[in-house]
Amino acid sequence: MKKLKLYLDASAIGYLDEKSSQNDMYDMLSLWESIKNSKYEIVLSEITLDEINANKNTEKVNALIQYLAEITYDIIQIDDEANRIAGLVKSNGLLISDKHQNDRLHIGCAIVAGCDVLVSYNFKHLVNVRTIKGVRGIASLSGYNSLDIMTPAMFVEEGDS
Asked: What pTM was estimated for this model as a whole?
């Protein structure tokens, strides 16, 4: 069986060291163990890395960089096609504010990279029914495979807790 290809945004990676939310941190750490054991193929974008490095808490940045050193991942660059898909997200009435440009680019990068799932804890903008349904439609109409958007909790299997 083919491994699922996961795109991780900065919010998901950030929960590897989010002591203020123990349950969510546990779920991300559980997914991380599966990633370390090569259960999934992982994709990040330069946006993900930029967002991690932009965090003002240098201790957290250092911790997340150490976590990233534990896994193998591909980095997708923002190209014309990722920008085009991001533009389609906006033109279809999703994430229309300029402040959501990175969220649109996460979606564009994940779709262009052929990811099965975009993993995020961004409930307000990404992990919600309207965005998920809209992104599935955009991917399909653009000739790409469907992209699901899920939280790390959706990867916790029976026996993991």
From this structure: 0.93
